[in-house]
Structure formats: structure tokens, C-alpha cells
Write a structure and sequence with these properties.
By secondary structure, this protein is α/β, with parallel strands linked by helices. It has two domains: about 140 residues, 3-Layer(aba) Sandwich (Rossmann fold), CATH 3.40.50.2300; about 70 residues, Winged helix-like DNA-binding domain superfamily/Winged helix DNA-binding domain (Arc Repressor Mutant, subunit A, Orthogonal Bundle). The chain contains ten helices and six strands, in the order E-H-E-H-E-H-E-H-E-H-E-H-H-H-H-H. It has a six-stranded parallel β-sheet with strand order 2-1-3-4-5-6, with helices on both faces. Strand 3, helix 3 and strand 4 form a beta-alpha-beta unit. The longest helix has 14 residues.
Length: about 210
């Protein structure tokens, strides 16, 4: 199995590469930032990319954005994301829509290489792997908070009219908004609800379902 490792920490990257080689994996490329990662994916044939969420230059979402780009452009490549902490917003972005071939592990798991190896195998086989701690946190967050709570009053009004089956034009006429403003509100609604743009899902329907469930 061919892997690409992306982490700005040379120590973590080299240490992980060493143990994975010993386990029989081929490391086809290393990357210290998102740009290097995407270049490696374009250049080398890989089965799985192991990616840190926070990478240079801002150490915020570069790894996640790169992972989502890989999922969009190279859907056959599995992506295993590593995170220092439980970051529910990032987890929801990654796992929203089609989560096959996607994994999300905390870096604490690197202490048990067998867990990492199992996660890589599952992701390569098209299955999803989520760290138990992340699952627990996501479930707790879901019990405690309604995702619609993040919407503004105007966004909730737009979503309510979407649930009535109204078009963007009709929503604009009802709320006295321009078409571009309606589109901007809908785009923000999708983002806040963690609904990704995928070929197999209708984001408008998914957002309405979230509204009806709440």
C-alpha cells in the first residue's frame, strides 16, 4: 500500500514513516505543508494520505482544506486526518456528505501504531474511521446544541422559506432581498450546518431536513 504523509513536524513525520515502513507500507512522499501535499498527490500514485489538520503557514485549517480538496479531486484516495485535539467543527466538515474512505484520529493514537495501521487499512478499503473520543464529543455536542442555533434570524427565515419549497427568487421577494443576497445567505446556511457540496447530495434538501428535524 502506498502512502503520503503530511505533517509540519519532521519528528512526527519521520517517526511515523519509519514504523509504517516496518509494517510493510511504502511511503511515496512526505509533505510539510498543504501545498507540498497537493503537489505530491498530483505527482505520485497513492492509496492513502495521512494528513495533519493544522499546517503552515497559519496552522489553522490548511491540512483540512487540502484533505477536502483531495476528496473532491481524487475520490479514490483514502484520507486519514490527524488532529492534536477534538475539533468538532473540522470533523463535521470532513465527515459531512460521503464519508467513505475518510478517517479522523487524534494524535494521541500515534502511541499505539496498531490503531493507526488498522485505521489506514479501513480507509484504504473505503470505510470510515472516527476516533472514539471524537464520536463521544460529537454526540455530546449534538445533544447540547441545535446546529440551527448558529444561524442568524435572517438565515433562519431564509431556511424556513426553503422548507416551504420556495425558489431563491420567491424568497427574495418575500424578504425584500436581492437574488445575490439570498444566494449568500443560503451558502452561509450550508456552511454553518456543515453540509458539503458533493455530487451525490442535494444540499438544499439536506438543509431543509436539518431544519425539519430541529
Amino acid at each position: 500500500m502506498r502512502l503520503i504523509l503530511a505533517d509540519d513536524s519532521v519528528l512526527i513525520r519521520e517517526g511515523l514513516a519509519s514504523v509504517l515502513r516496518d509494517a510493510g507500507y511504502e511511503i511515496v512522499a512526505h509533505a510539510g505543508d498543504a501545498k507540498q501535499l497537493l503537489s505530491a498527490v498530483e505527482r505520485d500514485t497513492a492509496d492513502v494520505c495521512v494528513v495533519d489538520i493544522r499546517m503552515p503557514p497559519t496552522h489553522t485549517t490548511e491540512g483540512l482544506v487540502a484533505a477536502l480538496e483531495i476528496r473532491r479531486r481524487f475520490p479514490k484516495i483514502g484520507v486519514l486526518v490527524l488532529s492534536q485535539h477534538v475539533e468538532t467543527h473540522y470533523a463535521m466538515q470532513l465527515l459531512g456528505g460521503d464519508a467513505s474512505g475518510v478517517g479522523y484520529l487524534l494524535k494521541d493514537r500515534l502511541g499505539d501504531i496498531n490503531e493507526v495501521i488498522d485505521a489506514i487499512r479501513h480507509v484504504a478499503a473505503g470505510r470510515s474511521v472516527i476516533d472514539p473520543t471524537v464520536v463521544s464529543t460529537l454526540l455530546g455536542r449534538r445533544r447540547e446544541a441545535d446546529p440551527l442555533d448558529e444561524l442568524t434570524e435572517r438565515e433562519r427565515s431564509v431556511l424556513a422559506l426553503m422548507a416551504e419549497g420556495r425558489s431563491n427568487r420567491a424568497i427574495g421577494e418575500r424578504l425584500f432581498l436581492s437574488p445575490k443576497t439570498v444566494e449568500a445567505h443560503i451558502s452561509t446556511i450550508f456552511s454553518k450546518l456543515g453540509i458539503q457540496d458533493t455530487p451525490d447530495d442535494n444540499r438544499r434538501i439536506l438543509s431543509v431536513l436539518a431544519y425539519l428535524r430541529a
